[in-house]
From TrEMBL:
This is Uncharacterized protein. Residues 50-84 form a coiled coil. It comes from Eruca vesicaria subsp. sativa. It comes from the Eukaryota. Residues 1-40 are annotated as: Disordered. Residues 7-25 have a biased composition (Basic and acidic residues). Keywords: Coiled coil.
Length: 179
C-alpha cells in the first residue's frame, strides 16, 4: 500500500470543471424543467381563468337576454294596459253618448205623452160636461112647471143654435186656412 495518495485527494481541474459544467447543465435542466412546469401551471391556470371568463360571459349574456325579454314584456304590458285604458275610455264615452240620445228620446216621448194626455183630458172634460149639463138641465126641469120648462128648453135650444153657428164659422175659417 504505500503509494501516494495525493493524486487521489486532489482532483484534477479538468474533472472539476467537467463536473461543475455537468452539474450546471443538470441544474439548468432541472431549473428549466421547473420553469417549464411553472409555465405549464400558469398556462393551465390562464386556460382555466379564460374558460371561467368565457362561462361567466355566456352567463352574463344569458342574463342580459332574460332581462331584455322581461323589459320587453313589461313594455308590452304597459302598451297593452294603455290600449285597454284607451278602449275603456272610448266605451265609457260611447255609453255617455248613448245615454244622452236615450234621455233625449225619453224626453220627447214624455212630451208626446203629456200632449196626448192633455188633449184627451180636454176632450173628456168637454164631452162629460156636455152630457152632465143635459142631466143637470133635466133635473132643473123636473122641479119646474110646464111653462117654465118650455121657456128653459127654448132658451137652451137658442144657445145650442148659437154655438152650432159658431162651430160652423170656425170650421169654415179652418178650411180657408188649410187652403
Amino acid at each position: 500500500m504505500g503509494g501516494s495518495t495525493s493524486k487521489q485527494d486532489k482532483p484534477n481541474m479538468r474533472s472539476v470543471k467537467k463536473e461543475t459544467s455537468t452539474e450546471r447543465s443538470r441544474g439548468r435542466r432541472h431549473m428549466r424543467r421547473e420553469t417549464d412546469v411553472r409555465e405549464k401551471e400558469m398556462f393551465d391556470k390562464l386556460r382555466e381563468a379564460e374558460s371561467e371568463w368565457v362561462k361567466e360571459t355566456k352567463k352574463l349574456r344569458e342574463k342580459v337576454k332574460r332581462l331584455r325579454k322581461k323589459v320587453e314584456e313589461k313594455e308590452e304590458a304597459k302598451t297593452t294596459t294603455t290600449e285597454e285604458r284607451e278602449y275603456w275610455k272610448w266605451v265609457v264615452k260611447e255609453m255617455c253618448v248613448e245615454k244622452a240620445v236615450r234621455d233625449e228620446a225619453i224626453e220627447k216621448w214624455n212630451q208626446l205623452y203629456l200632449a196626448i194626455k192633455n188633449e184627451l183630458d180636454h176632450l173628456i172634460i168637454h164631452t162629460t160636461s156636455f152630457f152632465s149639463g143635459k142631466a143637470m138641465m133635466q133635473r132643473q126641469l123636473e122641479g119646474k112647471d110646464e111653462t117654465e120648462k118650455v121657456k128653459t128648453v127654448e132658451k137652451l135650444r137658442n144657445e145650442v143654435r148659437v154655438k152650432e153657428d159658431t162651430i160652423e164659422t170656425l170650421k169654415e175659417k179652418i178650411a180657408l186656412m188649410d187652403r
